[in-house]
Amino acid sequence: MDIARVREWLATAVAEARTGLAEGGIPIGAALYGPDGTLLGRGHNRRVQDGDPSLHAETAAFRAAGRQRSYRGTTMVTTLSPCWYCSGLVRQFGISRVVIGEAVTFHGGHDWLAEHGVEVVLLNDPECTDLMRAFIGDRPELWYEDIGEDISQDIGQD
Fold first, then answer.
1. Is 8 one of the catalytic residues?
2. Cα(first)–Cα(last) distance of the chain, in Å?
3. Neighbour-count burial of 157, counting CB atoms closer than 10 A to its CB (0-12 exposed, 13-18 middle, 19+ buried)
4. Which residues make beta-bridge pairs with 122?
């Protein structure tokens, strides 16, 4: 993969993550690109904004792309390693490649994807890592709710 192109694609996902943060949500963004590099869809985690626990960044980008005859050759670009739910979406629809901004703050299902033939490109992007670290520090209750962990007792909430 052309690293300059991959960085451009990641910039789209980062812009979506920043939009989500500005809306009071989880700062994770994603974009789905066609085999020819055409942007098919983009989106950000809207779980908080829409009250919909299934509206992760990858699903938002996937939905925005609309129906495709095939997802073979497509690339899902995401600022954070995809959770099991989003990893399942990639496998279910045969998305060929996943480009990940970072997996430091959350190590999702990308190893599983690679084991099952999906090309995984992990960028270890400092901007993505810093964005998530700051969010987790500021809003741990939202973060742990998003990944399905109850830490209310750990942070003094009932």
1. no
2. 48
3. exposed
4. 100
pLDDT given for residue 152 in this prediction: 47
Residue 157 pLDDT: 45
The closest of 70, 25, 72, 67 to 46, measured between CA atoms, is 25
Q: Taking CA 44 as the corner, what is the angle to CA 109 and CA 129, rounded to the nearest 5 degrees?
A: 60
- The answer to whether the predicted template modeling score (pTM) of the entire model surpasses 0.85 is yes
d(CA 87, CA 64): 17
Portion of the chain with pLDDT greater than 90, in percent: 87
Instruction: Indicate if the alpha-carbon torsion angle 35, 72, 87, 143 is positive or negative.
Output: positive
DSSP state of 127: H
The rounded mean pLDDT for the chain is: 93
Contacts of 54 (CB under 8 A, 6+ apart): 47, 85
Single out the catalytic residue among 8, 16, 58, 115.
58
Q: pLDDT tens-digit profile of 85-134?
A: 999 999 999 999 999 999 999 999 999 999 999 999 999 999 999 999 99
Whether 147 shows a pLDDT value over 90: the answer reads no
What residues contact residue 133 under an 8 Å CB cut-off, 6+ apart?
105
Do you know the residue count of the chain?
Answer: 158
